[in-house]
Amino acid sequence: MLKPQKKNASQGGDEITQLAGGVKAKKKDFFCGVKHISKLRRELQGAGLALRDTSGRTQCETLLRVLQYLGPRGINTPEGVGCGFYRIATRVQELEERGWLIASYRERIVGADGLAHRGIARYTLLGRAADRAPAPQGVLDLGAPQ
Which positions fall inside the Winged helix-turn-helix domain (predicted)? Predict the structure, then answer.
């Protein structure tokens, strides 16, 4: 009797992600179709977080408020594009330059086209850089070399 061949992530098997403390979990496909994006856009409009115009400054200011509103849910690239944000990674970079900490992690989604897309970025606001405690290794002062 033949054993079924085990597939790794690159061969279509389950994807594994590294979590805090070395715990491993399977990644699930996230369905990010037209209905989902339309629902998110209506939710943001209802909360007064719709884009007023497409200037980079307005997008940056609105994205910050959207990330604060969504909390741990965050927003991924196709959701952001569906809500009018273009070059969302650039806007995230601009927010980080202003002192905001934003986590970015990759997920696999099934898009409006029905195809699986790997490595789509999801952004979650962590807070202000000044509000976070410094890294323990960063505060060690071993003295200047003599």
Answer: 59-125
7-22 tens-digit pLDDT = 444 444 444 444 444 5
- Is the CB of residue 124 less than 8 Å from the CB of residue 103? yes
Dihedral of CA 28/32/33/38: which sign?
positive
* Cβ contacts of 27-32, under 8 Å, gap ≥ 24: 27/107, 27/108, 29/108, 29/109, 29/110, 29/116, 30/76, 30/107, 30/108, 30/109, 30/110, 31/109, 31/110, 32/76, 32/78, 32/79, 32/109, 32/110, 32/111, 32/112, 32/120
Query: Which residues have CB under 8 Å from 133's CB, separation 6+?
Result: none
Which pTM does this prediction carry? 0.69
Which residues does residue 105 pair with via DSSP β-bridges, in sequence order?
Answer: 122
